[in-house]
Amino acid sequence: MLEGQPRTFYLRHYYLIELDQSKIALLDALRDKHQQSSSDRRVQIQVLQGDCNIIIPELLARRPISDHEATFCLLDQRTFECHWSTVETLARYKKSGHKIELFYFLPNSWLPRAVSRTKNVERLRRWWGRDDFDAFLHLSQAKRCSTFCERLKTELGYTHVLPFPILERAHGRRIMYYMIHATDHPAAPTLMTYAYNTAVHPLPSEEQFLLALERINDAKPDL
What we know:
18% strand, 6 strands, four-stranded mixed β-sheet, 223 residues, alpha/beta, 9 helices, two-stranded parallel ribbon
């Protein structure tokens, strides 16, 4: 994102949040490299070490982002790290203008195994944000995806919510996880779809997925 954004859509404030202390040096190096090579001194990059579920609410409480500043949040979790309350805080931050766009990684293929090995029930409850997390986790893969997307629409007010599947190249091209894009900007879905198609092309199963997605989005969630 630092190098590839178009000049008509500058993001000028970056907050890179990482829990793993051993990875902070890599992010610091990335920040320094960009700042040394960039002529635009308006771009500010902060590297923050810690739990995003603590840092994001504390950061947003200081109102560092104006209501009309273009804002994009990548929530890159492995499985259960990002609490629903954090997603909600991001979605409700702006009082006017477009909401903070979200790009949320929803695990898929390894989710049942991860759930079976998780002894901390409270962790699952914080991730899903409700007490019916067990019912959600036992839905089919497609239904989990559509249910999560529906919550972003109905509970958090996003107009457009699209799941983009990331497939494993081997072993039958399983869907490993979904990158769920949530936005209320009318142009954003087209831009994200173009970026996705460019990144994953060629994708032989794309047509089948889009047909399935249409059926999923028309279906009502069980929860």
